Amino acid sequence: MRAADYAYLSSPAPIALAHRGGARLPENIGFENTLAAFGRAVAMGYRYLETDVHATSDGRAVAFHDTVLDRVTDARGRVADLPWSVVRQARVGGIEPVPLLGDLLEAFPDTFLNIDVKADSALAPTLEVVRRHDATRRVCLGSFSPRRIRAVRRALGPDVATAAGQLGTAALRFGPGPVTRLLHTPAPVFQIPAEHRVGGRTITLVTPGLVRRAHRLGKHVHVWFHDWSREDAQEYHRLLDLGVDGIVADRIDVLRDVLVERGHPPMAGSGG
């Protein structure tokens, strides 16, 4: 199947995705992956939201990036070692609760979700939530683990969009042979970092040739950033000029302005 065959990817490109709700939107700093942050993105016109998923010790899928609560909440401990009854008491930025994945699907029913499954323990709970909310056609599931992605395809069938993992890293490490094989993955979208640091050197990964090869195979190219400080209007314009199909942005205010300037505001280009 080609990207256009998936409901998740049927919106006109470029698709604007709010990374953790837009983690570097000034109002969202310190409140990533919360319903408040995602709500601000939706209010700005975003219809594609990116989140991460871990599972609690009793198998509840939570929209949370880190392995531990310590960095962004007023609590401590590994999410996987704590029951939901404890995690639900933690407050992101000391204010906002940690949401369940199901909360996100229910709170914003007109949105699409890009979900990064962060751990093996989160796989089954994530699949259960997607099934329970009949959300197969409105999610794209990705992971750094190819094994998890294969398990997603087996469990949810051909209608679910999945993201191919680590194309850029494979290109750097192994050369054109494995990259060609990766381009023929059943995943309809490549999620690629804009650049990669190797030996103190920054290498640009998203090139015109890579985008052309992906498009010849009917795939989307969605770009994300290791370092949000590299995100600015100039970089967004550069990527859009290359023909990328989506940008996963922390600076959703800057990306919105760029897309408006180009005649593709987020709502018009993101399933609105």
Number of structural domains: 1
The tally of strands reads 13
Helix amount: 25-40%
| Name given to the CATH homologous superfamily | Phosphatidylinositol (PI) phosphodiesterase
State the end-to-end distance: 24 Å
Fill in the CATH topology. TIM Barrel
Shape category: globular
- The CATH architecture assignment turns out to be Alpha-Beta Barrel
Please name the defining characteristics of this protein.
single chain, globular, alpha/beta, 272 residues, two-stranded antiparallel ribbon
Mind explaining what this structure looks like?
The chain has 272 residues and is of the alpha/beta class. It has one domain: Phosphatidylinositol (PI) phosphodiesterase (TIM Barrel, Alpha-Beta Barrel), CATH 3.20.20. Helices cover 34% and strands 21% of the residues. The chain is built from eleven helices and 13 strands. The protein has helices at residues 35-43, 84-87, 101-107, 120-132, 146-156, 167-174, 176-183, 208-216, 233-242, 252-261, 266-269, and strands spanning 15-19, 48-55, 61-63, 91-92, 96-97, 112-117, 139-142, 161-164, 189-193, 195-198, 201-204, 220-224, 246-249. The strands form three sheets. It has an eight-stranded parallel β-barrel, surrounded by six helices. A two-stranded antiparallel ribbon has the order 4-5. A hairpin with a 2-residue loop joins strand 10 and strand 11. Helix 6 packs antiparallel against helix 7. The radius of gyration is 18 Å and the shape is globular.
